[in-house]
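$ fold --in a.seq
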Amino acid sequence: LTSSNYRGYQRSNFRFLRRHKFFIVGLSDSKCEHCCTTENMLFNAKEKISHFKIKGRKIPIARIDVAKPTKFLEKHISWIKSISPPKLGVFVGGRYTFYNSWAHFPLFLHFVNKALNPIVELNTQEDIDAFLNSTGEYMEKTKLLTGAEEYTTIGNHMIPPIQTRTIFFAADPSEFSDELKEYKIAGEDLAYRDNIRLGVCKQKKLISQLKAKKGAKWFPKYSSSSLLIKRGEEEEIFDVSSEDTVYSKYIA
């Protein structure tokens, strides 16, 4: 996005931002050797996931070189002055989210997956049991992670010892449409956190069975909907009908 100041190239950049609602972006500085250490990760992304399609379009891989400032960047990407390279991130939901973990490509791939899929759909008891099991890696069923010849694991040596898993139990999703939207935004905001993953269960029959089994440990007394937060082996719940519920604050 910074290879030229020519008017025609600037127009192509404008078209790029208008056309793509999601893309991977790398930020580096060609005048600083230590500010280009994420280039290999960016090339790995190009080789391994640029073929993956979202709504029929391949994932674009963009690069910004802060050593080549352009009027386009100054006008349309104002945050560039406050971010120091090297950085990798994604553009999603009209904003940029940056990766802040190890230079380990599978971990970055899972970050991209969380940005694309901020909430895990849990439809069975087996899904819920596996999701809440903090002793191993939860194998997600998204196209990005399962599209390769084999599932891309993070690797247990890269998984934080204390993990946070949350499940929004919505027995009647239509009743909590606004809350579910806020919950999704929280998932987008927390995509950079290796140790946090958000899930949702909308299966009314399953939720009824869980309430009968778990009772007040997972649900308020007079409701079949709740937000379960599990940190390591500790569990707590929040009433999703509360007007002051701010999900990213509670979860983080």
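$ fold --in b.seq
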Amino acid sequence: QHYNVLHRKVHCINLDPAAEFFRYEVQCDIRELISVDDVMEDSELKFGPNGGLVFCMEYLINNTEWLDECLGAVDDDYFIIDCPGQIELYTHMDTMSRFIKTLESWGIRVCAVYLLDSQFLVEPSKFIAGMCSALSAMVQLQLPHVNVLTKIDLLSAKDKDNLDRWLDPSQLTLEGILTKTSNKRHANLSNALCRLLDDYSLVHFVPLNIEDEDSIGDLCLQIDLVLQINEDAEPRGPADLQDRDDTESGFGDETT
């Protein structure tokens, strides 16, 4: 909806084989190729939900011609690819890394957008675990990366007032919070994790309040900067988009 207001054409791609419904139009849907239900119902495979999801993603990577055909001719469009939320796909398996290399071989510039629920702020240990997962994904995927703290609108007034210290937390901030909230027996482990995050100094967050148009715009701008989208390009009006639809059959390029 935000991009539609800007008259900016985007294409949404669903790569979650366990997805159930969408509130937006999906250009390509992996469930047309394979779904978790298909895999789980196969009497020979005998996979559960997690194993079935991994199998689906491996199947996609071995059948990327389906996605290539669905995307069509690559030009200058913007793709938003909704991926599965199973964290091991991004932290220690090479599944998504191989998929990213395929996209790049098609001339598509890729940016990873990692979403962390702001409700993790209620329990600092969970937030730090989320930071470690984000760092692991950044190292594994080796992509331009934007970390997003979502559902800011659901935070209490007190947590919103303290939000800034979570967006770019220092080692001292993390250690101080963990000292107050964690078991003292785990102090050395907690401090080691905080030092690790501080040494890399890569995990920073952009807050997202879905009810705030400015917040959505700030996130979109951050992604554009990471992808080095041409800042001089002028937004196209509805007539331009209609003309393009009438003359082109492909969907185009540029992002996830």
